[in-house]
Design brief:
- Keywords: ATP-binding, Flavoprotein, FMN, Nucleotide-binding, Transferase.
- The chain is of the alpha/beta class.
- About 30% of the residues lie in helices and about 20% in strands.
- It is built from 14 helices and 11 strands.
- Helix 10 links the parallel strand 4 and strand 5.
- The chain starts with a helix and ends in a 13-residue tail after the last helix.
- The structure holds riboflavin and magnesium ion (MG).
- The site of riboflavin (RBF) has 22 residues, from helix 11, strand 9, strand 10 and helix 13.
Length: about 375
């Protein structure tokens, strides 16, 4: 891409959404709803999630009462559910890239506002649990502090006004359609980072559509770029996953000539949902064989449009035989790129080989090579 086509309108301030953008609130909502619905002999069905993201609490409650045909009013529902949430605000994890983004903008003195449909008291309770967040925002506005919440532009216009920045010079970062709609109606630049997968067609109004905060390129808007990318890779807080190798789709070696040692996702749905889809790399340990370099994808493999989120490590080593059933241990240390679709199988294969070369080279950097000795890779029992 040329510089001209990738450079957008220059901005001087950033307005951030909270739930689903900086915080993994979905995980909490799902947890609470599962417990709550049992009382009414109903089962939480994730399909409603897209109808509640970005809504105010009262709107979201109305949707749930109606969708599940609950024998109570929206108000009754809210008064029952609110206490179930209120002692949990501190348990909401920051989404990958959220702390990095806030710290980067604060370090570079970029004015920042938080604009959320959540009531102000809840916002405060949530962000107080994350070190350095509150101080980084010069403006914080809750849904109860404006006449109408998102998708009304009011909360964004109020944020811009208090930041003392022209709306057209504000960059909004949002995970939901109501947030995107409000930001555009306010005349702002909007980066959409959808919290619900496979819904990108709903976000065509966005000025940029990214998969996770790890893919944010602030320089497109004239903001100071992140400086932590190194040789095409982004260091992340290392995480571990392990289990027996399963056959997966058996497609890796057959169709692509790239044998992936797929891990069973059973028991790991929580861990997987915490990590954005994308191409990552790190170290892989096979108890009876050794430790190898590894590049992997997490997600739905857009080229194949899988229905399940899978984790597909490619061990960068020639093995004489396969090792289905063996215990595979992974330490994931860095990120390379979002998953992509390709017009031909050849271009997918070429890209995966490029990922392999990037990983191979980066893993020799001390920053990443030190994890080769991680004890998790060598432990023999699960
Ligand atoms: N699949 C995609 O559809 N798009 C991708 O961008 C993509 N990137 C990958 C990168 C690496 C390093 C690996 C190991 C796999 C990737 N895959 C991707 C998944 C690949 O399509 C999958 O492993 C095979 O289909 C085998 O099931
Ligand atoms: Mg949101």
């Amino acid at each position: 891409m040329s510089v001209e086509s990738s450079l957008k309108m220059l901005v001087s301030g950033v307005i951030l959404d909270l739930d689903g953008t900086l915080l993994n609130t979905d995980a909490l909502v799902v947890g609470v709803m599962k417990v709550f619905l049992v009382k009414y002999s109903k089962q939480w069905d994730g399909r409603e999630v897209h109808k509640i993201v970005g809504k105010t609490p009262i709107e979201a409650s109305a949707v749930i009462v109606q969708e599940y045909g609950l024998p109570c009013s929206t108000e009754e529902f809210m008064s029952e559910i609110t206490p179930m949430f209120s002692d949990q605000w501190c348990n909401i994890k920051a989404l990958p890239g959220a702390c990095r983004l806030i710290k980067h903008l604060a370090d570079h003195k970029v004015p920042m506002a938080l604009a959320s449909n959540s009531p102000r008291a809840n916002i405060d309770a949530k962000i107080n649990c994350h070190q350095g967040w509150k101080e980084s925002f010069s403006v914080i506005i809750g849904g109860d502090e404006v006449r109408a919440g998102k998708p009304s532009p009011e909360i964004f216009l109020e944020a811009a006004n208090r930041l003392n920045i022209e709306p057209s010079r504000c960059l909004v970062i949002e995970d939901s359609v109501p947030g995107l709609t409000g930001g555009k109606a306010a005349g702002m630049q909007v980066v959409a980072v959808p919290s619900i997968p496979k819904q990108s067609d709903l976000f065509t109004a966005a000025d940029d559509l990214i998969n996770s905060l790890l893919d944010l390129h602030l320089e497109k808007w004239g903001l100071p770029p992140f400086e932590d990318w190194i040789e095409g890779t982004l260091p992340i807080e290392p995480w571990h996953i392990g289990g027996p190798v399963i056959k997966g789709y058996g497609r890796g070696s057959k169709v692509l000539g790239i044998p992936t040692a797929n891990l069973s996702t059973e028991g790991y749905s929580d861990l997987l949902s915490q990590h954005p889809s994308g191409v990552y790399f790190g170290w892989a340990g096979l108890s009876t064989r050794g430790v190898y370099k590894m590049a992997m994808s997490i997600g739905w493999n857009p080229y194949f449009n899988n229905t399940e989120k899978t984790i597909e490590p490619w061990l960068l080593h020639e093995f004489k035989d396969d090792f289905y059933g063996e215990d595979l241990r992974l330490v994931i240390v860095g990120y390379i790129r979002p998953e992509a679709n390709f017009s031909t199988l050849e271009s997918l294969i070429a890209k995966i080989h490029e990922d392999g070369r990037v990983a191979e080279k980066a893993l020799d950097l001390p920053l990443y090579s030190k994890y080769k000795d991680d004890l998790f890779l060598r432990s023999s029992s699960l």
